[in-house]
Write a structure and sequence with these properties.
It is a single chain. The protein has helices at about 20-30, 40-45, 45-55, 70-80, 90-95, 95-105, 115-125, 200-205, 215-230, 245-255, 275-285, 300-305, 310-325, 340-355, 370-375, 400-415, 420-430, 435-445; strands spanning about 1-5, 35-40, 60-65, 85-90, 110, 135-140, 185, 190, 210, 235, 265-270, 290-295, 330-335, 360-365. With about 450 residues, it is of the alpha/beta class. Helix 9 packs across helix 10 and helix 10 (about 245-255) packs parallel to helix 11. The termini are far apart.
Length: about 450
């Protein structure tokens, strides 16, 4: 019984090795199953072409994020017409399993960590046993569900099947747009997050828990990537890489002890209240060159409303410490959070302009299923997932308009990036082969659609 693990092609600026898919592939292979990973996003396959490639398999597992839910709906219908058993996993299936089965008409949804559930399901199907009571599995037949506990020890999970997602074969479209060196490989050193930011689905996905791999295990994987796949840069994609200082310190020290020469960055962001001058210097010494911070807003009132659980003065301090340590600094900003006004947006933009930041990502609020905002705003319409994630407003606060949010975001991009230091940072790292991608990003974010001299009221 052959299995394909895949994701559809969808519109995105980021095309990076899919760790979740590769972890499941490795876990199934470890148990002597024949698994093929087909990344249609990387290979530029439309759903018709992908279904033809899946002809080798009896079972197809699809990784689904809300951003491309309707692409998954189309893919499942085509696979079912081809007689395949279809399983959907990933964040969207985890937080909306019943709706996912209803709209896609797939056979099963895997909820939460997929490795064990997927293995037990495949073995049940292979041996013609009833799979409906497997923990972590939603079935279209019965709708019954038993929660599966998380892994106690992440080190027992095999490394991702890197041979199926060879970093050297991916286009130059990394997380963060521009990087120091290619090839780049993503690595996660932990799973989960204990915080409760209202715009994030992590609390529901991970139940406020966080678990860690040991430093030796993490650095063993880094060494493998360098020696076997020629990787020159690592992107740590954890939700909370620096939350446990002893964890990140141990990783940095292990890299230094083994004399590993590699650049690394944190494009998924770290919390400002988890760093110190000493830690940032150690990170820099071990190869870190860039850190991103989830700032979200320049209004303390808005930060309090969304459960950020940190203070602006702490964020200011962390960014200044990182810049002083010689690191490239980046901030993530979200426009359109609950309580947003023209005044709070201006305050946020002025804050970002005043800090020693090299890069900034200005996003429009995307109300994610599974987040507290999704529930509180009663966002239930599945048509919602047809909008462009983070580029079209998912919610418009009272007193503002969608058009204003789109235009003010474009103006903020220009005001920030069209300055000498910021332009130099990007141009210094931009590779010739990335120019087309960068132009597309500029067009998509409408950076030149509004004069940046003033921001009119909505």
């Amino acid at each position: 019984m052959d299995i394909v693990i895949t994701r559809p092609k969808y519109y995105t600026h980021l095309i990076t090795p899919p760790l979740g898919m590769a972890y499941v592939t490795a876990y199934l292979r470890q148990n002597n199953l024949k698994v093929h990973l087909i990344d249609a996003l990387k290979e530029n396959l439309d759903n018709h072409e992908l279904v033809l490639r899946c002809d080798i398999a009896d079972i197809v597992g699809i990784f689904c994020m809300s951003d491309y839910f309707w692409d998954v709906v189309d893919l499942v219908k085509k696979l079912k017409a081809a007689g395949k058993t279809v399983i959907i996993g990933g964040p969207h299936a985890t937080v909306m399993p019943q709706e996912t089965l209803q709209y896609t008409e797939a056979d099963y949804c895997v909820v939460g960590e997929g490795e064990k559930t997927m293995l037990e399901l495949v073995l049940a199907l292979k041996n013609k046993r009833d799979p409906t009571n497997i923990p972590g599995l939603y079935s279209r037949v019965t709708g019954e569900f038993v929660t599966r506990p998380f892994f106690d020890n992440l080190d027992e999970i095999p490394f991702p099947a890197w041979d199926t997602i060879d970093p050297r074969t991916y286009p130059l479209a990394p997380h963060g747009a521009v990087v120091k060196t290619f090839p780049v490989a993503p690595v996660i050193t932990s799973r989960g997050c204990p915080f409760s930011c209202h715009f994030c689905a992590s609390p529901k996905i991970w139940n406020h828990q966080i678990r860690y791999r040991c430093a030796e295990n993490v650095v063993d994987e880094i060494e493998l990537l360098i020696k076997k796949y020629g990787v020159k840069e690592i992107h740590f994609e954890d939700d909370n890489l620096t939350l446990n200082k002893s964890h990140i310190q141990a990783i940095c020290e292990e890299i230094l002890d083994r004399n590993i020469k590699v650049h690394w960055a944190t494009p998924n962001g770290i919390r400002a209240d988890t760093v110190s001058e000493e830690l940032l210097k150690l990170m820099k010494k071990s190869g870190c060159y860039s850190v991103a911070f989830g700032i979200e807003s320049g209004s303390q009132e808005i930060l309090n409303k969304i459960g950020k659980q940190t203070e602006l003065k702490v964020m200011y301090s962390a960014i200044r410490m990182a810049a002083k340590a010689g690191l490239i600094t980046q901030a993530f900003i979200i426009f359109g959070l609950p309580g947003e006004t023209v005044a709070t947006i201006k305050k946020t933009i002025n804050m970002v302009l005043s800090l020693p930041l090299h890069k900034a990502q200005f996003l429009l609020l995307d109300v994610l299923p599974g987040s507290q905002l999704w529930d509180s705003l009663n966002q239930q319409d599945m048509e919602y997932f047809k909008k462009r994630s983070y580029q079209e407003p998912g919610y418009v606060p009272d007193g503002l308009t969608a058009d204003y949010l789109i235009k003010v975001r474009a103006g903020a991009f220009r005001r920030f990036h069209l300055r000498p230091r910021q332009m130099y940072t990007i141009l210094k790292m931009l590779k010739i082969k990335q120019v087309k991608l960068m132009i597309q990003r500029i067009v998509d974010f409408s950076m030149f659609g509004l004069s940046h001299k003033n921001f009119s009221n909505p």
